[in-house]
Each structure stands twice: as structure tokens, then as C-alpha cells.
Specification:
The protein is an alpha+beta fold. It is built from 2 helices and 6 strands; from the N terminus they run βαββββαβ. β3 and β4 form a beta hairpin. It starts with a strand and ends with a strand.
């Protein structure tokens, strides 16, 4: 099964040096154990542009689709044999990056 780990943060800026070292080590563990698919940081919501072209509405809005003090700051996409394994890895990822991590299965 594949999962997305959404990293949730509430402050602007990148991870600290110590956080990046821990994240890099976690990424290497994911690779070594065959869980790794991909991971990436995400720019600040201040740089977001939201489009709504349902029914050709043509709406373009600078900023995120919803204002909130918390936002996605990155993600991992991993492979795991069970929810239990994914949840263990998400807890470890949260510890490494020092941010909340939301877990969801990917369809397909």
C-alpha cells in the first residue's frame, strides 16, 4: 500500500540544521528498508495561487484555498505493508522533522 505523510507546520521558514540532519537520516532509512517513493518540501502558503475553473468560472486567487495558522510544509510518499507500519514510520518522521504528520492511504 502507498501512503502520503503530510508534514504540518505553523511557522515560516525551513527546517533547522539539526532537523535536516534527522530528516536526511530518516529518508535514508526509508530507502534502505524499501519504503521510499519520494519526499519534498513545499513553499509557504503565501506563495500559493488557487484556481477554481469549475463550470468555467475562471477564478484565480493569490494565496491558499483556506487561511489557517497551520499548513502543509512538505510530504513523504511511502510504501508499507500495513497501516501499523505506516503509522510507526509517520511517528518517527514527526519526531525527526519536529512537526505534525498526517497519514493517509493513496488510492490506486
Amino acid at each position: 500500500m502507498r501512503y502520503i505523510f503530510s508534514v504540518i507546520h505553523s511557522a515560516e521558514g525551513l527546517a533547522t540544521g539539526a532537523e535536516m540532519e534527522a530528516i536526511d537520516a530518516f529518508n535514508e532509512k526509508l530507502r534502505a528498508e524499501g519504503h521510499w517513493i519520494m519526499a519534498c518540501g513545499i513553499e509557504s502558503p503565501a506563495n500559493a495561487v488557487t484556481f477554481d475553473n469549475r463550470d468555467h468560472a475562471g477564478v484565480r486567487q493569490n494565496g491558499p484555498f483556506v487561511e489557517n495558522s497551520q499548513f502543509f510544509s512538505g510530504f513523504w510518499i511511502i510504501s508499507a505493508d500495513s497501516d501499523a507500519v505506516a503509522h510507526e514510520l509517520a511517528a518517527e518522521g514527526s519526531l525527526c522533522c519536529h512537526r505534525m504528520v498526517e497519514v493517509r492511504r493513496l488510492h490506486g
